[in-house]
Amino acid sequence: MDTILHKAGQSRTTQSDPVDPITTEVVRHALNSAANQMKRALVRTAFSPVIYEVLDFAVALYDKDVRLLAQAPSLPMFMGTLNFCVIEAVKGIGGVENLNEGDIIIYNWPYGTGSHPQDLAVVMPAFHEGELVGYAAIKGHWLDIAGKDPYCTDTVDVFQEGTIYPGVKIVEAGKLVDPIYRIILANSRVPKMIAGDLNAEITGVRTGVRALLEVVARHGVADFGRAVEQMFDHGERVVRNYFAAIPDGTYVGSGVMDDNGVEPGQVPFDITVVVEGDAVRLDYSAAPPQQAGPINCPVPSTISTSRVAISMLAGMGEAPNEGHFRAIEVVTRPGTMFHPLAPAPCFLYGWPAVQAIEAVYQALSQASPEIVPAMSGGCICSLVHWGTREASGEPWADGAPHPVGQGAWKGHDGGTMLHISESATRFSPVEVWESRNPWLVERMELVPDSCGPGEWRGGMGVDFAFRMLEDTYVTTSVERTENGPWGLEGGLGGRANAVRIDRADGSVDSSRPKATRIPMPKGDLLTLRTGGGGGYGDPAARSAAAVLADLEDGYITREYARAHHPQVTLPEG
User: Fold this and answer.
1) Of 132, 325, 133, whose CA–CA distance to 232 is shortest?
2) Residue 167 and residue 157: Cα distance in Å, rounded?
3) Cα–Cα distances in Å, from 232 out to 61, 69, 216, 227, 337?
4) Cβ count near 250 (within 10 Å)
5) Number of Cβ atoms within 10 Å of the Cβ of 505
6) Which of 161, 164, 377, 500 makes the best surface tag, with the fewest CB within 10 Å?
7) In this structure, are strands 279-283 and 328-332 parallel, antiparallel, or unpaired?
8) 186 contact partners, CB below 8 Å, separation of at least 6
9) First to last CA, the chain
10) pLDDT value at position 343?
11) According to the model, what pLDDT value does residue 12 have?
12) pLDDT (0 to 100) of residue 89
């Protein structure tokens, strides 16, 4: 099948009368503030820790042409997908002509959202004096929507993954559509949590629409539109200036999945990055065929992955808008792992996407190694737990990603945080975990020697140990257990990810990094070992002061220092 070229909204061919730059900046910051108001409204009213603690969502505002105006810091991987959600949600209800003031649409068909069905989009149009001027959109993770399990690593088609809402109004002209609402609650193992999160998302998009309309009313439709165009033009210049300084060329990066979830055997892939002038093209057309298991990444998330990878490098720390994406082209081939066709399973869509970011950086390192980091732990290391409480019989569920070590840069050690793809999210505090769920966190600690050695070392891996206080089911979604992170410019890799289960009967199971519905009876201990980041530069060039500081902080042991930094004389004792 032929390849498809994907582009963001293109540059203007004609220039309108500009507004002054101060007005443009006032509008830009007002839009960013509006998006942050959406985020605060959602977080403050959500029921599930996956929303209000983990921040597993994205909120954004779009203009009437579905171009990104502003997004609050949350889940970067959703950054480039919400425009697809808006377009497909509106298409699902019959088009723009069927939109009314006060309407809210829900949509979760994975090949339109880019995600598994649990990442459901909520979309609301914004009307100013009867004219459509934009949209507010939220995509957030719902803990359960009647898939074969609340979280899956072994689905073989999309229909095992959850209930599909193909663009339907949950609110029409300001009034709740009760039949749809009842269908949503009937299709969840945890309906109270879903009801709370849905109502929070409705509150969030209403907050966003109200804030967007205040900005439009303050400046007028015409001046608002001109300011937005200048805002987009500026974002485009920022990214184009970055790539103009990188040598032209064709560069190839590689990733490898441990398996596809249902069949043994690693799944390698390559991504070609072409830098030409002030633009960049990311070519996924050589990806393997779409897989029998759920590691397929729908094309909206493939595009989003590309935008995240590039924006993190070239965005100069600015809040993104549509203009930042204009210099980025993405090529895919339908029927492949990065452009699957229905009904291919895609529950683990994010796991190849995470590695794709690393592959893009590996490719760009061949052009200018100093502009990218070495590889991180290479996974978001998700665990999802669920069951029924002993005392009340109440169903419960919870889940989170877990932090890996980040790769080192030239001049900087790697950080210890979540992967770039989830850099604005977090895992729940231990106090929240233990108060809401039937487990005890016996260990959560940075692990000595887990960092990749280098002139600048990688970030640390983390060990988490969960003791089950009641019978529980767990799904583990952990990649890069067979291949550790790579270093750059002579730096070495960090440790790989791993999962270990110590049973109450004394047996040990360490072969379940990617598994669904693992029974965890009371007393079992689940240990997650997240990977460390790769190092940058020759370890023999690391300064004595840095090695001794790492030793004093407990980041490395004396054995590690002797093995990788023989240039440093260690103190006695």
Assistant:
1) 325
2) 20
3) 14, 8, 17, 9, 32
4) 14
5) 8
6) 164
7) parallel
8) none
9) 66
10) 97
11) 61
12) 98
Integer angstrom CA distances of residue 110 from 121, 134, 193, 343: 10, 23, 22, 10
Q: Considering the entire predicted model, what is its pTM?
A: 0.95
364: left (phi over 0), alpha (psi -120 to 50) or beta: alpha
Question: What is the Cα 86 distance to its own chain's centre?
Answer: 18
What is 492-533 written as a DSSP string?
Answer: ---PPPEEEEE-TTS-EE---SEEEEEEE-TT-EEEEEPPPP
C-alpha count within 13 angstroms, C-beta hemisphere, residue 203: 16
Residues 562/547, Cβ–Cβ less than 8 Å: no
Place of tokens 């487990």: 439
Burial of 470 (0-12, 13-18, 19+ CB in 10 A): middle
The pLDDT of residue 16: 63
Query: DSSP of 58-118, one letter per residue?
Result: EEEEEETT--EEEE-SS-GGGTTTHHHHHHHHHHHTT-GGG--TT-EEEE--HHHHSS-TT
The CA distance from 466 to 428, in Å, is: 13
Alpha-carbon gap, residue 6 to 303, rounded angstroms: 8
Cβ–Cβ < 8 Å for 167, 93 = yes
Q: Supply the pLDDT for residue 141.
A: 94
CA distances to 20, 67, 227, 276, 292 from 236, in Å: 18, 13, 14, 15, 39
Residue 520's pLDDT is 96
Residue 280, CB-side half-sphere exposure with 13 Å CA sphere:
32
Task: State residue 275's pLDDT score.
Answer: 97
Q: pLDDT at position 269, please?
A: 98
161 near 145, Cβ under 8 Å? Answer: no
Q: Are 282 and 330 in contact (CB under 8 A)?
A: yes
CB-neighbour burial class of residue 382 (10 A; exposed 0-12, middle 13-18, buried 19+): buried
Residue 315's pLDDT is 77
The pLDDT value given to residue 282: 98
Residue type, 568: V
Neighbours of 549 (CB within 10 A): 12
70 touches 31 (CB < 8 A): yes
Of how many residues is the chain composed?
A: 573
Residues of the chain under the 50 pLDDT cut: none
Are residues 518 and 386 in contact, defined by beta-carbon separation less than 8 angstroms? no
